[in-house]
Amino acid sequence: MKAPDRDGARDSALTRLRGTLRKLYHGRTPAAFRFQLVAIIIDLAIIAFFIATPVIQESPSFLWLDYSVAALVAADMVARLLASNDMLRLMKQPASWVDAFILLTLLMPSALANLGFLRILRLWSLSRSGALWRYLEMRGLRRWREASHAVINLLTFLLVITGFVYTFFFRTGAGLEGYVDALYFTVATVTTTGFGDIVLPGIAGKLTAIVTMIIGISLFVRLAQALFRPNKVFFPCPQCGLQRHEADAVHCKACGHILNIPDEGD
């Protein structure tokens, strides 16, 4: 008779834990927003560590920092799974795949050293966080959501390409100078400035430059569209799910359902 009691106690404790995490990750109470803000700050610190990795990876404390970040990422992944109403659906989302890959590179820093630059994708994953946008909406910044997405997409691309170029073409210039050279080449290529003082050797270098220019120009166009086209807000239609509407829309333009979009000050 005692075993079922213990099992029931464990189930009850797990249920309470999931309920608490759900309130913290998805709630709108002051305590939930404080927790979400701290989580965002920690995420930004982790991203800063990823950006600085090429410069500090030779330092004695790098492995200690690497495994500490791995523990944080793992804890966040487990907590988000427990807070989810549908774990399987969450695991199928691209942001979860990105986090799983990042965790793998953190746990195997030597074996996957050449793929470490992809950790910057954590910035893209953060930009898809509902908590981030809920916090910004509380500050009346909802109308900047699409532009912010475009800026983060461009920044993520620049940092990923910089990491790739540094890893495969500037490794002999290890350290800050080599990383700055890789960043300089990336920005000059994306903006099609093409000074030509830094070029990548061989066919692989030319193909890298071509891909960087094509995708970079596309992201710049996307950013310009987000900044200058008529402003729309993110508000899912309860009936058809269409997410983008004019700020003063009364009916969904796709299905005609009556909308109740809150004002910026609400």
From TrEMBL:
Coiled-coil parts of chain: none
Q: How does it sit in the membrane?
A: Multi-pass membrane protein
What is the protein's species of origin? Answer: Mesorhizobium wenxiniae
GO-annotated cellular components? voltage-gated potassium channel complex
Signal sequence: where? none
Q: Where is the Potassium channel domain?
A: 156-227
* Biological processes annotated in GO: action potential
Q: Which InterPro entries match?
A: K_chnl_dom (IPR013099), K_chnl_volt-dep_EAG/ELK/ERG (IPR003938), VG_K_chnl (IPR028325)
Q: Where in the cell is it found?
A: Membrane
Carries keyword Ligase? no
List where the protein spans the membrane. Answer: 31-56, 95-113, 148-170, 207-228
What's the protein name? Ion transporter
The alphabetical list of record keywords is: Ion channel, Ion transport, Membrane, Transmembrane, Transmembrane helix, Transport
- Keyword Ion transport on entry: yes
This protein's superkingdom?
Answer: Bacteria
Q: Which GO terms describe its molecular function?
A: voltage-gated potassium channel activity
